Amino acid sequence: MSHFDEAALRAVDGILRAAAQAEIMPRFRRLAAVDIRTKSGPLDMVTDADECAERVISAALSELFPGCVVVGEEGCSADPALLDQLGVADLAFVVDPVDGTANFVAGMPLFGSMVAAFEKGEVVAAWIHDPLGEDTLTSMRGQGAWLAARDGTRSPPLRVAEAAPVSAMVGCISYGYLAEPMKSRVAARLPRLAKTWQLGCAAHEYRLLATGHTHLSLYNRLMPWDHAAGWLIHREAGGYSAHFDGSPYAPAADRAGGLICAPDRTCWEAARAAFLGE
Fold first, then answer.
1. Is residue 172 domain-shared with residue 236, that is, in the same domain?
2. How many CB atoms lie within 10 A of CB 89?
3. Helices assigned H by DSSP within 101-212
4. Within-domain flag for 156
5. Which residues face 261 on adjacent strands?
6. Beta-sheet strand order (sheet of 69-72)
7. What is the mean pLDDT of residues 158-183?
8. Cα–Cα separations (whole angstroms), residue 200 to 117, 119, 176, 247, 273
9. Pairing of strands 122-130, 135-140
10. Same domain, 239 and 142
11. What whole-number distance in Å separates Cα of residue 144 and Cα of residue 76?
12. 123-126-130 Cα angle (round to 5)
């Protein structure tokens, strides 16, 4: 039996909203140099907002769901072995407290908080909260995806964009982590789309996909805090996704293999051929 019903979905949404109001928004455009640090390199940043929000979210999830495992992006920087729990725990949450940290640091209003719930390795629920817009993309496996407003009202079920030829597609193509020669090949083929966006924030890129404002996304690096929530929301909104080789994406286990998201399998195959084909 799933841990989630309507009340539980709303409760997790409330946790994200509270963390955003208490720890994220008060720091937006107010960060001092001492509040910003780097992890693996100069482009991999973390701020007090990331760390404080993750602590608040993790504590609240643990209180709401006693015994659950919480795998946070910042916590995994200190203890990568936490990732192994996603595939085996009865209930685990993966948390990205501030997705789009570089945007946040730059004062750009493109960042979000993402949480995905796993039961025995399967993603069963997902939330992507926009602290500025104060609404939350929400999804439960087999129950669709929707947008929950600040007052609790729910949008009609979300639907991905209608199928289109590659030349008419709008896409978010993240090629920065691709290895050569694939990186140069994909970059050179961007004009095959009608329009391309790079937001530096998976939370908002998945939002565009699930609400039908873009057709396509392409990613290479697949850390679960960046993709598990968006992947489920996109799928429940009717989308199709797979690794570059066509195999299914398993968020609890997969860190590589790339990911293409599209409105349906036909569009996926056309996009793969356009960007990765010889």
1. yes
2. 19
3. 101-106, 182-188, 202-210
4. no
5. 217, 241
6. 69-72, 92-99, 112-119, 122-130, 135-140, 145-148
7. 96
8. 24, 29, 11, 26, 25
9. antiparallel
10. no
11. 30
12. 155
Q: Token pair 């945007």 is at which residue? A: 103
- Please provide the DSSP assignment of 173-191 as one string: E--TTPPTTHHHHHHHTGG
Q: Which residue's entry shows tokens 């539980």?
A: 8
- Cα 193 from Cα 82, distance rounded (Å): 39
pLDDT in tens, 231-251: 999 999 999 999 999 999 999
In a domain, 153, yes or no: no
Shared-domain flag, residues 103 and 207: no
C-beta contacts of 80-83 below 8 A and 24+ residues apart: 83/224
Q: Give the E-state strand segments of 29-133 in sequence order.
A: 36-38, 45-47, 69-72, 92-99, 112-119, 122-130
For 28-39, write each residue's pLDDT tens digit. 999 999 998 887
Paired tokens of 86: 């996603």
Are 116 and 126 within 8 A, CB to CB? yes
- Which sign, positive or negative, has the C-alpha torsion 78, 80, 86, 89? negative
Q: Are residue 187 and residue 81 in the same domain, yes or no? A: no
C-alpha to C-alpha distance for 158 and 106, rounded to whole angstroms: 31
Among 117, 148, 179, the domain-final residue is 148
**pTM listed for this prediction:** 0.95
Distance CA 135, CA 152 (A): 9
Residue 212: predicted pLDDT: 98
One-letter amino acid for residue 255 of the chain: R
Q: Is the domain of 185 the same as that of 141?
A: no
Q: What residue type is 10 in one-letter code?
A: R
Tell me the residue range of the domain where 208 lies. Answer: 166-276
126 and 82 belong to one structural domain? yes
Show Cβ contacts of residue 245 under 8 Å, excluding neighbours closer than 6 positions: 257
Look-up of token digits 């192994």? 84
Question: To the nearest whole number, what is the mean pLDDT of the chain?
Answer: 94
Same domain, 83 and 172: no
Query: Which of 148, 175, 198 is at the close of a domain?
Result: 148
